[in-house]
């Protein structure tokens, strides 16, 4: 059976193509810097948005039209696996990601939930055998069920902590079973609605304890995936403990967890925290924390997580610049934690949306590669910070200066001459790179 | 004497040029739709940002380095006029805009202020004779001087209302003298800091009275410039009465002023009001209110008016789309109400910044023209709203339906079938237009 | 049968009471200005939040524990009516509000939906006979069902326009049947997700046509309730056409609807639009548009509609000040469009939350009354705007001044002397009023 | 000579006083918990807002009327010292704070700047001898002068690093000279305007190097003040490195500086970072970082640092709760980093504004003390987290649980029972405490 009968494998047709079911910019085989686009970009499909979600919003019931919805329960879960692998194949993505509840319905008991998952995991494993698609990461959804109303590892209720632990334990086992390359922790309800009834100190301590136990158990079972924390500042909570990359860094350093975790940076979460996507990537990169990326975008005029497919080529270019400078994402990838809009409810829109996302990251990759090759930013930086490579600047960087030597130097300075930052020229240059990127095609 | 000795007239060199002092996209003579770029785009230079401002911010003294700052008072004002006309010529802008206080220093009395202005206006007029540069608009700065601390036309102090009226009267006369094509009202302090001591009703009534007097006086002196209100939601006030285009529309309708005013839409003010630039333009266009544009951009992550030079070609494209659909801006233009960044303090950066702004609007114009030519959006709209062109939809639009006929129709509907909005495809299409725009050059 | 068996009728016990199921500040019989609190405050219960909603959020399934959820379909709908009237009685609210879908489940066809509604409306009517509870307003939910994915009256699909009309027609009839005092239009999806596929002009014209038809039909059936539009800037849409009070005013004036509509101002919607609650109330009041109030509050640090129960006595005080100055709300009331937090999931929390809301509005009412009695703000205003009561100011207000007379006056002004706005003193005074409000009790 | 001739020493007159020049709630001698209000609250006056600033804003020249402005240069600086000590005495504040440039004008050279400072410091020291007013903290303004356009310790220009070091060195010496109890670092321009030309890694390393040198130099000269970093997320920069308390914690931990620095938490900076004031205080407290407080408030609807005098008694109550739980502020204090509004330009408004701020913190202190005495929050926490004091919860906290034991426990759980968070009751309780706080006076 086929779930997307009107869609064939998506082909690259080039920038001028008017075929909505073709790539215009993502050419999987195109070599950049000795690697194919496919290898470097490591696109991942988010199971939840693509196969499980219904496009409901707080004011509306689901609008998505999906042909697997004629089934229910485990039957639907099985149909989704089939549809998923057909989709992976046709869109040409090599990775996927899921939460436990995305792939299999919760049972009446934890044991039954496990059983449901085992059934589906076996099915997924079968499909993986016939495919070169890999598990980028899995995770436990410890936020949707009302039992997590006050948090999971940071719940005020120890039973919920225990239940959450059991759920993560199971996912670590599944991750190992499926060869997952990373494991993600997004603390959807690890935060608070109000400080007025919250023991912030205990909750953060417990969260750290939970992470330590996860590290221990992964080691125990020999699951060597990269652990990733995905920061988000708020929503659904008022304050989420993993607010942004630097806050999460503080948490890791405080609890001595920094060697076991990297970050999964989501573009829209950056925006909600008041940062650009590239800021979060840069901070993570500079601190050795850039693990993986949830590739989406938000609407800067809206105050919630819109999880849009990436459409802004400025953003994909600057993101890819950071990723290139990071030497790639290692075991991480570009997971489309993105949903077609509520108004894009057709099943075919899943293709349109992913084609767009992949194309726009391909543009970003191509342009960023060119910027790196031409050392555009590197030359700016070299010139701008040149004063730290000699004289007093070199002394500062090498630890040979102190306030007394610096004061002496300052007292004898004739004039301080700064150089213009030339931001307008730099921005215009980026536009030139974008607009010239495909001129020779 | 020359004020920009290292800069020659800026030439168009094409998309691949690496000359920072050349246009890459703005080719004044390029014909689009039977008109040159120069004619259609009607670029204006903002006197305040370019010749008067010093790049200070609330935490910093001015950083701008300007060679006319060796002078003071009226001497500096005269030097600025010379520099301005040299700049207009070299950058190739055909319009300029100013506030009264930009061109001449305030005197110790209103009479002396007038006198200073008269001197400079005569000088400007002389320069205009030798040039094809025109006055896009002028305006009175009724917000900087502490006398406007509680507002100008909406001040709690009737003396300030009178003083403000005198200042606008003078500017109307100067506008006439210099052949100004528009006259702008931006109500910098026409709003409130707090409702707790504000008679909102009286203040808005007074503001309307002020506008009526301005209309009357312009008529009296035969000054037939288009009057424009520039909405902004806040800053410096907590609430500015001309919050956004639709709020200002309410004001105009309430006071019967709608035939005498159009809007001057500023991109950054749109953002501060929680709107996109194109929303404000669209609302104004659909309601016959689109008069002129303050062409800049804000930073969506910052909560104040950054007045950046336009660098986002998405934004310039969608703006130019609205302007084309409006049949151009009439007597209005694209005024760069934008400042080089504080870190771009060199005098030459004034060129860099304006080149960038002009180039990016040229890109927007070119791409939007192509979109219009190909009826990209028009076809989407035609298809999407087709149901209003026949049957029940036609009845609705033609006023032939009522709740009873509609209910009868609805009760007999088998099924309601909506079409996908295809937003992801539309956004990808815009990217294609951008990336393909210069492929044949 | 009783649905709230552990709760008796809530009594007023005074400010020091520690009984969570007692009023501390709301004393229904307390006379203020010759009217009881109960008469003036006209509290309304929102059926949706209190009896229908489950406290789900975009990341979580419903957490609410409700004893009527043991039933399903029409049985649950009937149970909810019983529970509702028991709740109204016990909490002591005299009004309630509902959407069509709150009171009865949608059927497989519009006809069946009507039938379900008829059954429940008859039941409600029965309960109303034995009670002094009245219908503050009803409305049609034209946003939840996926058929409204592209809007209702502003849908791109004429069938949806027709279906929406049928639904509103039915609600007008039900409003009449139940003696509803107002009828509300909240345009949940009357706006756009993106301008890129939106015919803004047509959509707003259609919206106006829809309102005209509603006015006509109400007249036809003799339903003389006050029509109310409830502004909200965004969510679920990106831009909602009734953005705020002033935007909605523009809409009403543009389409000549201003005599038929007032506004239902919601506190949280004000915040989302970048305004204070009191701003929206003030604008509505000054323009004769203040019809009713959705009494809730938002979290200024969160970007979505949290619909919290009013807890901020500054806000309730300033709101009640506007309402008192408006001469009360006429046929309108204070509807708690508010939900207990997701973490306040017990059925009893419905009482806690409403007690809090009623108490906090009672505080606001008491303090605002005292402020009005003492003419605190009135004296500030009188003093501050005194210059408009004589001389040049009087001329301005009376239309006897023009730019020439004002210039003459300004040229002869020696000095302009403004008075301090004294905001710090005013704010401190409000705190004094709050902290002294219950000192004699 | 007297600078505030119409103002006598401000006296406490109680909650009902209508004297604008009297305290209503701040009674310095009132004993709470065995300490006087004056001792615990440690109010500080910010020299810059009170004696140096002119109430200008980005769109307006200074509106402040100050009688010391008849002088200029060093004469004005000296007059300000006199005025300041008269003000401290009359308002009854025991602490003050300054930046180098607040107290003395910059000279033409660094040497001259030092000399100016030495003159004024000697004068201040003289005044301190006759007074019991102490220096809460001083700091170097390394952001106003254009030389800091690209940062100070994080400047791209090593000369600026050196100059900044010299300025801080001097302030450390002055701090020691005047017995300063703390020393503050606010990194006004330590951040970036754009990542596009920023070496974020080098800049943060340099910032850390700068702090290390400061620590070393303070030790060398025996200046044992508490070092404080004041976080702020942005403004004037686009991104400031000390974004918020947790980000700053990351910085301190990364560079091993955590033993040498605490935080100076400003309310308005919290808001700009998307946090509540109490969140920042709580995070700092729980992590041993709460050093001092900049007591002001922002406007949540405005996107810039309004530095308002504290007027919200909810905020002062929750702040004082954190401070009480911290055991007070140690060497820190409550510094009014707040300015009278631009419209409150009279010299007397300086008193009104500070009286308001002190009164509102006194209210907060009183109410918070009562809340602590009654263990309101403590009982909520005890009850809510009770499950961590026995059984599986105790095991978790004591490190005796692991994923396997927790899974076993979870598999055998019958049901998970959460307790309602009762947020509505808690908020109502706080209102009761506020409204009852002065009922017995
Ligand atoms: Co994500
Ligand atoms: Co997201
Ligand atoms: Co402007
Ligand atoms: Co602006
Ligand atoms: Co509402
Ligand atoms: Co709401
Ligand atoms: Co501060
Ligand atoms: Co501040």
TrEMBL record, chains A, B, C, D:
Instruction: Name its GO BP terms in alphabetical order.
Output: D-xylose metabolic process
User: What cofactor does this one take?
Assistant: Mg(2+)
Gene Ontology cellular component list? cytoplasm
Per the record, what are the reactions this protein catalyses?
alpha-D-xylose = alpha-D-xylulofuranose
Q: How is the cofactor bound?
A: Binds 2 magnesium ions per subunit.
| Enzyme Commission number(s) from the entry | 5.3.1.5
Q: Where does the record place the catalytic residues?
A: 99, 102
Extract one GO molecular function annotation from the record.
xylose isomerase activity
Q: What class of enzyme is it?
A: isomerase
Which residues bind Mg(2+) 1 per the record? Answer: 230, 266, 294, 337
* InterPro entries listed in its UniProt record: Xyl_isomerase-like_sf, Xylose_isom_bac, Xylose_isomerase
Binding-site residues for Mg(2+) 2, renumbered to this chain: 266, 269, 305, 307
Superkingdom classification of source: Bacteria
UniProt KW keywords? Carbohydrate metabolism, Cytoplasm, Isomerase, Magnesium, Metal-binding, Xylose metabolism
Q: Where is the signal peptide?
A: none
Q: Where in the cell is it found?
A: Cytoplasm
Subunit notes for this chain?
Answer: Homotetramer.
What the record says about family reads: Belongs to the xylose isomerase family.
Name of the protein described by the UniProt record:
Xylose isomerase
């Amino acid at each position: 059976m086929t779930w997307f009968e009107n869609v064939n494998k998506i082909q690259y047709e080039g920038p001028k193509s008017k075929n909505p079911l073709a790539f215009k910019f993502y050419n999987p085989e195109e070599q950049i810097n000795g690697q194919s686009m496919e290898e470097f970009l490591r696109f991942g499909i988010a199971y939840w948005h693509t196969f499980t979600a219904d496009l409901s919003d707080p004011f509306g019931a689901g609008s998505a039209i999906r042909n697997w919805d004629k089934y229910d329960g485990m039957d639907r879960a099985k149909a989704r696996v089939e549809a998923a692998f057909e989709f992976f194949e046709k869109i040409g993505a090599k990775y996927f990601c899921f939460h436990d509840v995305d792939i299999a319905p919760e049972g009446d008991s934890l044991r039954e939930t496990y059983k449901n998952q085992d059934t589906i995991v076996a099915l997924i494993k079968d499909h993986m055998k016939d495919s070169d698609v890999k598990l980028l990461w899995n995770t436990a959804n410890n936020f949707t069920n009302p039992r997590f109303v006050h948090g999971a590892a940071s719940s005020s209720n120890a039973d919920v902590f225990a239940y959450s632990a059991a759920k993560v334990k199971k996912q670590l086992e599944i991750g190992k079973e499926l060869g997952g390359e990373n494991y993600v922790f997004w603390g959807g309800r690890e935060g608070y609605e109000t400080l007025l009834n919250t023991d912030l100190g205990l909750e953060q301590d417990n969260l750290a304890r939970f992470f330590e136990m996860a590290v221990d158990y992964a080691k125990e079972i020999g699951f060597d995936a990269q652990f990733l924390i995905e920061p988000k500042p708020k929503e659904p909570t008022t304050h989420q403990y993993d607010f942004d990359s630097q806050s999460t860094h503080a948490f890791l350093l405080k609890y001595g967890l920094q060697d076991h975790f990297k970050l999964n940076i989501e573009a829209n979460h950056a925006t909600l925290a008041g940062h650009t996507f590239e800021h979060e990537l840069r901070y993570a990169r500079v601190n050795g924390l850039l693990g993986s990326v949830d590739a989406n975008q938000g609407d800067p005029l809206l105050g919630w997580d819109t999880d849009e497919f990436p459409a802004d080529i400025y953003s994909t270019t600057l993101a890819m610049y950071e990723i290139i400078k990071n030497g790639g994402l290692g075991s991480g990838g570009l997971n489309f934690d993105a949903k077609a809009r509520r108004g894009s409810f057709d099943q075919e829109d899943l293709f349109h949306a992913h084609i767009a996302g992949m194309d726009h990251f391909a543009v970003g990759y191509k342009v960023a590669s060119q910027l790196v090759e031409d050392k555009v930013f590197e030359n700016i930086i070299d010139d701008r910070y040149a004063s730290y490579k000699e004289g007093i600047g070199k002394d500062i960087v090498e630890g040979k200066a102190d306030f007394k030597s610096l004061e002496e130097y300052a007292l004898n300075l004739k004039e301080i001459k700064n150089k213009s930052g030339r931001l307008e020229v730099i921005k215009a240059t980026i536009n030139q790179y974008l607009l010239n990127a495909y001129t020779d095609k």
